[in-house]
UniProtKB/TrEMBL annotation:
GO biological process: protein targeting to vacuole; retrograde transport, endosome to Golgi
Annotated GO MF terms: phosphatidylinositol-3-phosphate binding
Keyword Membrane appears in the UniProt entry: yes
Species, as recorded: Torulaspora globosa
Disordered: annotated span: 1-40, 97-116
Protein family (similarity comment): Belongs to the sorting nexin family.
Phylogenetic classification of the source organism: Eukaryota, Fungi, Dikarya, Ascomycota, Saccharomycotina
Name of the protein this chain belongs to: Sorting nexin MVP1
GO CC terms of this entry: cytosol; endosome; membrane
Length: 519
C-alpha cells in the first residue's frame, strides 16, 4: 500500500455517514453533557498518541458499519481489520496512524515505498511463522489415574507429565503433577481473559449426558485434554504464560492454590503501545485475507469433521473384520475336529492332510487378525489424533473470529463526533461574555478526556490488529498438519496392506498342495 493511501487513514470512522440525525448520542444538546464512555484508568500513552488533534469536521456513522462477522440482532462493532473502517470521509484525527508520511520516506516514489513495505511485511510474517512449530512432538502426556477422589461426587484425576524442562521452572526429576478436569477449565478461562485475541483451543466436554463415567468417553476426554494442553504449550505466546507454568509444575492441589494465591488476569494489551513500524507496514490485503478465511471456516470445519469421522469409521470396520476373522478361525478349528468322523481314515488318509492345511488357514487368520488389531491400535493412538488436532485448531480460529466480533468494537466514532460538537460549542461561547467560566472549563475538560480515551482505544485497536495478524500468521503453519495427517494415513495403510498381501500370498502357496483327489 502506497504512502499516499496511508495519509488518509482515519482509524475511527466508517465510510458511511448516513442516518446521523437519528443518533441521540450525537445531538449538539447532549454532546456537552455526556459523561466519559470509558474510565480513564489505563496507563497514559506517549505524547505522539496523546496529542491527537481534530482537523476540520466529519460526521460519524451511528451504525458504525457492519462487521464481516455480524449477524442480525447482534451489537454492531467496528471491524478494526477492515480498511473501510480506517478511512474517513472529510477530515481525520491525525497522529502516528494518520500522518501523511513516515520518517525516512520523504522523497521516495510510491513504487519504492510499496516495495519496501512488502519486504518489511514479508520479513515480519516470516519471523512470526518461525516461532510456531505445530508439527513438533508433543511434550506433555496425560494419564488417567485409576482411583477416583471425592466423598460425595467422585472425580477423575489425571497425571500430567511434561517431557522436557520448562523455562523458569525448578529442575527436578519429578515432572509430574496431578490435575482434575476443573483445573483445565480454570487454565482455559485465565488464558481467555489474558489473551482474548489468541488461538486458544477448546476443551473436550466434561460429560455427554450420563457418559461421564463411561470408559470410552473418559478415554476420549483424556485424549482431548492431551491435545488441548499440547496446543497451548506449542503456542509461541501462551507457552510463556506464568499461570501455564504454574499449572504444569505446582505439585500441590491446584484448587487450593487458586484460593490462596493472588494472580493477575489482566488483558495482555493493558501496558502495551503499538509500534510505529507495525502501523507503517499494514496493508489492506491482510483484512481481505482475514475476511475470506472467516467466510469459509464453518464449511472447512464441517468437511474436516466428516473426513475425520470417515477415518474413525474405517477403524471400526477394520476392528469388526478382525473379530470376524478370529471367529472364522474358531469355526474352522471346530470343523476340523469333526472331519475324521465324516471321512474315516480307514478308507483314506487324505482327510488328515486336509486338516493339516485347515490348521495353516487357521494360523493365517490368527496372523491377519493380529495385523488388523495392530492397524486399529495405530489408527486410534496415532492417525486419528492427527486428524482431530486439526479440528481443534480450526475451531480455535473460528472462536477467535467470534471473540473478535464481540470484543473488538470501540466507541471511537461516537467520541470523535462528541469532540467535534464540543469544539463547536466552545467556539460559540468565545463571543458570549455572559457564558459561565465553569461551563467552559467543564466542556474543555470533557474534550481532553475524550481525546485521551480516543487515543487509548485507538492504541488498543491497533494492538488487536497486530495480535490478530500474529495469530493468523502462525495459523498458516497448521496447513502442514494436513500434509502430515494424509502422509501418515498413506504410510500406515501401505504398511499394513503390504503385510496383509504377503500373508495371503504365503497362504496361497501353502494351499497349492492341498489334496484335491486320492492320487
Amino acid at each position: 500500500m502506497g504512502m499516499d493511501a496511508l495519509g488518509d487513514i482515519d482509524p475511527w470512522n466508517t465510510s458511511k455517514d448516513e442516518g446521523l440525525s437519528s443518533n441521540e448520542w450525537t445531538s449538539e444538546e447532549r454532546a456537552g453533557s455526556i459523561g466519559p464512555l470509558i474510565e480513564d484508568s489505563r496507563p497514559s500513552l506517549d505524547a505522539s498518541i496523546r496529542n491527537i488533534s481534530l482537523i476540520g469536521s466529519t460526521e460519524a456513522n451511528d451504525t458504525l458499519g457492519r462487521s464481516a462477522w455480524e449477524e442480525p440482532g447482534l451489537t454492531r462493532n467496528i471491524d478494526i481489520l477492515s480498511e473501510t473502517n480506517l478511512t474517513g470521509n472529510g477530515s481525520s484525527f491525525l497522529g502516528p496512524f494518520g500522518a501523511t508520511a513516515f520518517p525516512g520516506t520523504s522523497g521516495t516514489s510510491q513504487e519504492e515505498t510499496h516495495h519496501g513495505l512488502d519486504e518489511s511485511l514479508s520479513d515480519w510474517l516470516k519471523k512470526v511463522r518461525d516461532t510456531y512449530k505445530p508439527l513438533g512432538p508433543d511434550i506433555v502426556v496425560i494419564e488417567q489415574l485409576p482411583d477416583k477422589e471425592g466423598l460425595l461426587f467422585k472425580h477423575t484425576n489425571y497425571l500430567v507429565r511434561h517431557l522436557v524442562a520448562l523455562p523458569h521452572a525448578e529442575s527436578n526429576n519429578d515432572r509430574s503433577v496431578i490435575r482434575r478436569y476443573s483445573d483445565f477449565v480454570w487454565l482455559q478461562e485465565v488464558l481467555l481473559k489474558r489473551y482474548p485475541f489468541r488461538l486458544i483451543p477448546e476443551l473436550p466436554p466434561k460429560k455427554i449426558g450420563t457418559q461421564n463415567a463411561d470408559a470410552v468417553f473418559l478415554e476420549r476426554r483424556r485424549r482431548g485434554l492431551t491435545r488441548f494442553i499440547n496446543l497451548v504449550v506449542k503456542h509461541p505466546i501462551l507457552s510463556k504464560d506464568d499461570l501455564l507454568l504454574t499449572f504444569l509444575t505446582v505439585p500441590t492441589d491446584l484448587s487450593s492454590w487458586r484460593k490462596q494465591a493472588i494472580y493477575d488476569t489482566t488483558e495482555e494489551f493493558s501496558d502495551k503501545k503499538i509500534t510505529h513500524s507495525f502501523v507503517k507496514m499494514w496493508q489492506k490485503e491482510i483484512s481481505e485475507q482475514w475476511n475470506e478465511s472467516e467466510a469459509t471456516i464453518e464449511k472447512s470445519i464441517e468437511l474436516w469433521v466428516k473426513i475425520t469421522v470417515s477415518m474413525e469409521r474405517y477403524e471400526r470396520r477394520v476392528k469388526f473384520m478382525a473379530k470376524e476373522r478370529a471367529a472364522l478361525g474358531s469355526l474352522i478349528h471346530e470343523f476340523s475336529v469333526s472331519t475324521p468322523k465324516l471321512y474315516p481314515t480307514e478308507q483314506s488318509s487324505t482327510v488328515l492332510d486336509i486338516n493339516d492345511h485347515l490348521s495353516i488357514i487357521e494360523k493365517h487368520l490368527k496372523d491377519t487378525t493380529e495385523i488388523s488389531n495392530e492397524r486399529t491400535t495405530e489408527y486410534s493412538t496415532s492417525l486419528v489424533p492427527n486428524f482431530r488436532v486439526f479440528i481443534d485448531i480450526l475451531i480455535s480460529l473460528r472462536d477467535l473470529f467470534e471473540r473478535y466480533r464481540i470484543m473488538a468494537g470501540n466507541n471511537i466514532p461516537l467520541l470523535q463526533r462528541r469532540v467535534e460538537l464540543n469544539n463547536q460549542k466552545l467556539e460559540s461561547m468565545k463571543d458570549k461574555p455572559d457564558v459561565s467560566g465553569v461551563e467552559y472549563d467543564r466542556i474543555k475538560s470533557t474534550i481532553q478526556r475524550d481525546k485521551r480515551t480516543i487515543a487509548e482505544e485507538l492504541n488498543r485497536a491497533w494492538l488487536i490488529r497486530e495480535c490478530i495478524l500474529e495469530e493468523f500468521t502462525i495459523f498458516q503453519e497448521t496447513q502442514f498438519l494436513i500434509t502430515r495427517a494424509f502422509q501418515e494415513w498413506s504410510k500406515l495403510n501401505s504398511n499394513y496392506a503390504g503385510r496383509t498381501v504377503n500373508a495371503w500370498e504365503k497362504l496361497s502357496e501353502n494351499l497349492m498342495d492341498m489334496p484335491t483327489s486320492q492320487d
